[in-house]
Amino acid sequence: MINQTLAKLFRQDSILLRAGFGAAAVASLWGSPIELSAEEPTKAPVIIEKVVEDSVLIATREALEEGYKAPEDSLEPISSVSEHEPELADPPSKSAPPVASVEVTDLATEEAAPQATAAEDAVEDAVEDAVEDAVEDAVEDAVEDAVEDAAEQITVADDDVVVADAGEPTAPRAMATPGDVAAALLQEEVKVAAAPFKQIVAGVSSRADLERLWGEPASQRKTSDGVVMAFDQEGFAKVEVLVEGDRVELIKAQLVKQSQPERLAAKLRVDAIDPVTIADDESGEALGIAYPEKGLMFLLTKSSEGLTPISPQFVTHIVLQAPDAEAFALRAETRPRHAYSKRLKDLTAALAIEPNAAYSLWLRSEVYLSTGQPVKAEADAKLAVEQDEDNVAYRLRWSETLAAVARYDEAVLETRKVIDDEDAPQLVKAQALALMGSLASLGDAQIADKAIGFHTTAISIADKLATSKDATERRAAKLLLVRSHLAVANEVSRRSYDDKADVVAQWIGRASGLAEELITNDQGSLELRLEVAQVALETLANLKPAKDPGPWVTEASDAATAIVASTDDKLLKHQAHWGLGQAYFHALRVAHTRREAERALTYGQESLSHLTEAAATADAQPAAEQLIGRLYFHLGAANAVHKQDHAAAVEWYTQAEGLLLGDAPKSELVVPRQLGEALVSMGVSFWNQDQRPKAIELTEKGAELMQQAVDAKVLDPGAMAVPFGNLSTMHRNLGDTGESAKYAALAAEARDSKTDSESVARRRGNQSQPRAASTAGRDRTASNAAVGGGSAPQTTKKSSTRRGLLR
């Protein structure tokens, strides 16, 4: 039943109308990209009738002459050469605009505010007399307050991670054991404690304490929140205290004369704490400034009340309360997105105060997800949804985390709920469509065919939001535009399209331009530049023959180096290493395809070093394990092909096998693509090293997975000639003529199916259909998948396309 459910979720029908799109948007959901501007790619990707993806069985020789018959004593792999010539967009210029600096007006200068008067000094002295001693104690000695438990601190040993140099021997090694995220947060401990005011501590002191220390109130009134008691305190125009039940909840003191926020913060000795501005939801005007660790807030004048329209705002009241979870969450939200460690610390403090705060859980799950910790992210996101099941943003985050931990079927179901919610905000709907596009790309041919449509519709919505006055919405929309363009480029690169290389170049170029605009003008992180370079290398690896990866490798390396040099945030540094490790991995794939042996091995060692460096804060999770498994596989293949060193290859393959065949959750959606072909290729080296039972086991498992891909119409049936032919050879050498004959017949049947496929392709070509991409190179390559007898399997060669679940 779940197969039918998944198919329905992806089908093109009236269910999409419930998503709130207009007729034009629905019509274009599965079509070409929606025009965004003059810079939009001029040629949209065109899906041909045949959506079978290129076979990637590893090969050792060029495409052979038509009619070539494999020698009887060899195992015949598939060539990886085709006529497609990629022309990626030029790498971003080295003179690209730098990250914009932020200018902050110094309100403490004499020029930025009216001259201080004797009266103002007197008021500030009065403030200092009233609260300085108590606040100073709270700031310097904040270990005695009852609220200190809210500052939950987690520490672990800061073990050094040893990173191998690229020149070291290429021996396989396991990744560093993933550590707790707290390893990235080793800072001097900061306590969370309410600031006392004349010996009264909001959230701690009782009404009896208040009356004993301050005497009878001048007046009091009842409100829905409790009793508000007014007191006369020297140096203040008015002091009001909110008492709820028998506890002091809030203290509000009105200054005799307004004061500059910075000067007052310095006097109260909270200027070392990162403040957060409380703004009006509609106008965006600053209403106050909060210091979450101390439960302290300054209320500000309205901007219209200044001496001139450009006058700075001043403090009218100081408010003290118990440390508040919302203040920490707000500060985490308003920090730059890439300030991972500080955001995580804020949100951990918020959740220590209010463990089930859905908003804080939602925010923290995003930080975890962005820093390679999807297991923790999923736990937070699920709890947020449980607290507020109607919040589509929370549900979307949960969907993202489900996908990240390879629970794809659940991710599809939850994402569909978001898309179908008529009340979902447009940004959330666009993000859900982009996620659905990524999920669709994992499915069979019919489902994967819809991936680009989801992404282009997400682009169409995000483009309208990219000029929003709401900074959070605007930046999220711009980020979505970058990533959706990259997703389309990647999807195009691994399928059959007219002028595929040109189309990929346009999408990558557009993504690069959007990323640079976000970096320069809207607090975007250099991580985006690294991400563009990484995906550009991935698309380059999916095109055959591949161009020189050097310029994009340099771009990725420069971006990662700049990130690491510019921050002390360990989580951000680790993410830079992880992104660069992925970039080097794809560069390895390209160099291998180009038969650049030493370069391929160097890139592989660089990838291993950077991924190991990043592993300290990463969760053990399927995507990471698959990436490392693929890296080990390609390092083994490089040794087998370029060095004819099957012994070294087997060492790497042994490391790769457990990761590639890990315990990922079963899915009815995901179709295994290149995993089966990798196992078949691994079997060749094991056979060469006389580990024959293992070789047969891997080849049989690979054939099983390849057959699943054929059934899903993402792999040509003719590709099965290779594993069947190899199994025939292996069993013949073991003396099992019956099994050998069975597999020989299956191999012949597979070759016949490829011949039929070639005939169809030629007939389509004779019809001069301009929308159809050439498949001649691919089909000729597959037609050489003949398998003969013999005991010495040939070495393998890595293909330039690896996609799907192994991506």
From TrEMBL:
Residues 68-120, 749-807 are annotated as: Disordered. Residues 749-761 have a biased composition (Basic and acidic residues). Residues 90-120 have a biased composition (Low complexity). InterPro entries: TPR-like_helical_dom_sf. Gene3D superfamilies: Tetratricopeptide repeat domain (1.25.40.10). This is Tetratricopeptide repeat protein.
